[in-house]
Amino acid sequence: MLIRNAEPKDVPAILARYNQAVRETTAAWTSREETLDERLTWFEGRMKQDLPVLVAVDETDAVLGFASFGPFRPREGYRLTAEHSVYVDPAAQRRGIGRALLERLMEIANAKNLHVLVGVIDGGNAASIALHEKLGFHVAGRLPEAGTKFGCWLDLVFVAKVLGPMQSPEA
Ligand SMILES: CC(C)(COP(=O)(O)OP(=O)(O)OC[C@H]1O[C@@H](n2cnc3c(N)ncnc32)[C@H](O)[C@@H]1OP(=O)(O)O)[C@@H](O)C(=O)NCCC(=O)NCCS
Residue limits of the N-acetyltransferase domain (predicted)? Predict the structure, then answer.
């Protein structure tokens, strides 16, 4: 397994992974699958902003998972905080891929002098919460019944990690 920067040719596989999660899980709080055009626009937007889109690939270069981060909230005071996401093919889970993707994202965030990484997770997603806690994130808040999907209320859980040494923000 190799982690590398995603290329345009990987976008259909990224889309397939995301749409599988839309159909079958509460990782994304929507039932609307994306189109290839929408994912390509998202990918190009990330590239223009010099934001990472990573893929984990096997020895045949098939995509096993992807991860990315982007702005947490639009106002400029949040510019040193990013929100990330990680998706791994169900057939490839529990093999360290989610961990490897998230560790690489953290390295990139550190290199960009970002200060905080935030994950926004369904409170029932034990796998994602466990992954984040293993990598030093802590549960920073829980909004009970903030969402709904598949006829259930969903709690919104924020996991956060302060990166690097404590530093004063530039003015
Ligand atoms: C969450 C997710 C990314 C984890 O990816 P993964 O490749 O299976 O995780 P890893 O194999 O790297 O696991 C790393 C650690 O996370 C924890 N973990 C992962 N899956 C777990 C599970 N199902 N139950 C409990 N702990 C789990 C474990 O501590 C694990 O370490 P260990 O295997 O040494 O015990 C994956 O389950 C996934 O893609 N889920 C659907 C999409 C999603 O929920 N994304 C997160 C939203 S940001």
Answer: 1-159
pLDDT along the chain (171 residues), means of 10: 98 98 98 98 98 98 98 97 98 98 98 97 98 98 98 98 77 56
* 121 falls within a domain: yes
The ligand 1 site (C-beta within 6 Å) comprises 21, 25, 27, 85-88, 93-99, 119, 121, 125-128, 130-131, 134
> What's the Rg (C-alpha) of the chain?
16
Nearest CA to ligand 1 atom 22: 127
Sequence-distant (6+) residues with CB within 8 A of 95 are: 1
**102 within some domain:** yes
Query: Which atom of ligand 1 approaches the CA of 125 most closely?
Result: 44
CATH code at position 28? 3.40.630.30
**If you measure from the C-alpha of residue 77 to the centroid of ligand 1, how many angstroms do you get, rounded to a whole number?**
31
